[in-house]
Amino acid sequence: MFVSKPAARLPQLLPIMPTAPSSKRWLDRLLDLFAVLGALCILAVCVIMILMSLSRETSVIFKGGDDIVAWLCAASAFLILGQTFQHGGIVRVEMLLGAVGPRRRRVLELVSLTVCLAFAAYAAWALGTFAWQSWEIGDVSQGQIVIPLWIPQSFAVLGCVGFLLAVADEWLRVVRGHKPRYQVAHEEKLAAGDFGETV
């Protein structure tokens, strides 16, 4: 009488896949959206500048190109603030922070982020109030193209709100004892041998 042996376990050919990373937070998605809008503004500036150059060689008049370029440049500068701050792209003084220990650095980070949070909140409130007043009184632009001023001002408000949320997020991370994202990004660059920003 033959007794069947249990089938030998096949060797695992494929490595165990790590757990899928958690989905992006709503704040990251919002800042990504603002960054995409800022990039589209820069692209629109390039297109308009080309059209304005071509219009000088033809009889076609491109009305209000300078005004549109100015609005788009301002919009792009504000819209990318949040993501730029989050990834460590804003200029920071690292000499003092790098010379102190981890505990003192955390205190200095918390103080600087608190000051930055206050300024970001004031900027968002001031620009929001300014845009609201422009909408209430029906203020319009004074250039070749007449549009309500609250429209271009709204992009500055959105950018400041995104920046405020990004600073508040980093402030909460430091309060909870974690490293801010921009510090982690800076350390990863140094670990990869990228010393361009430290020279």
Automatic annotation (TrEMBL):
Compartment annotation: Cell inner membrane; Cell membrane
Keywords assigned by UniProt, alphabetized: Cell inner membrane, Cell membrane, Membrane, Transmembrane, Transmembrane helix, Transport
Domain Tripartite ATP-independent periplasmic transporters DctQ component: 46-176
One GO CC annotation: plasma membrane
Membrane topology: Multi-pass membrane protein
GO MF annotation terms: transmembrane transporter activity
Transmembrane segments: 33-56, 68-86, 107-127, 147-168
Coiled coil: none
Assembly notes: The complex comprises the extracytoplasmic solute receptor protein and the two transmembrane proteins.
Record-stated family: Belongs to the TRAP transporter small permease family.
Protein's job: Part of the tripartite ATP-independent periplasmic (TRAP) transport system.
UniProt-recorded name of the protein: TRAP transporter small permease protein
Organism: Cupriavidus necator (strain ATCC 17699 / DSM 428 / KCTC 22496 / NCIMB 10442 / H16 / Stanier 337)
